[in-house]
Amino acid sequence: MSDLTGGFEMTVKRGWSVNAVQIRCNCPAFTPGAIYRYHVRHEWHDCFALESPECSACGAPGASVKLAIFGATGQTGRLVAQQALAAGHGVTALGRDPARVTPAAGLRLVRGDVRDAAAVAQAIEGAEAVVSVLGPSRNAPDFAVSAGTANIVAAMRAAGLRRLIVTSGAAVRDPLDRPGLFDNLIAALVRRAARYVYEDMARTVALVRASDLDWTVLRVPRLTDGPVTGRWRLGYVGAGTGLRLARADLAGCVLAQLNDPAYVRRAPAVSN
Q1: What CA–CA distance (Å, rounded) separates 157 from 3?
Q2: What's the pTM value of the predicted model, to 2 decimals?
Q3: Element housing 47 (H / E)
Q4: What is the mean pLDDT of the chain?
């Protein structure tokens, strides 16, 4: 039995019972008639694969999304862009140094800074969804990420664009969190050792929450460079999540939100 996790977005058809879910896919990664496992909101279910061109993981017709990615030159952002392109999505990446992103079919590079409103507007032109994996590059009171996020939100409003997915550290709390003593200790250390990083991201999340967009904030713990596993948990701090997350799995989780309304206008924590 194979595991099929939230890293794969697919069209499914429910049968009479939860164990009669059909994955309709012509992707060569799936074997017709094989038994798979898929994950939906903390629950695992059995399913079987049939041949039909309805898989958004493999770029079948109607599955691709035109994405604008901010932060695509960073460690996580490069993985988001790579996985998006592999899934058949079109990608526009904004960066001060586009040479840090490997050219590929379906990739459009825009040179510029996220704090430049004109460059941001150019990057989202023609997009259907926006992903921001921006993070502060230093612990200094320049608040570049929140300033850039304000430009992203404004540009999306002007363009009539709705879907926004943003990442942040889990130290930026959510009302649904249930942190324990250790969780609070880690958050306190982050706020003390990286005061301006924390404040920049807290401002960023506040800006996104205050918008009228269809946003999702994915809050992450310590990121690692481990291999992709295709497994992650969505929940809240102290309630169903862990302390580490592979960047490659964060990239998969980000892309899995594109057509999933479960966490629209919510800020779950995600971990392995």
Answers
A1: 39
A2: 0.78
A3: strand 43-50
A4: 82
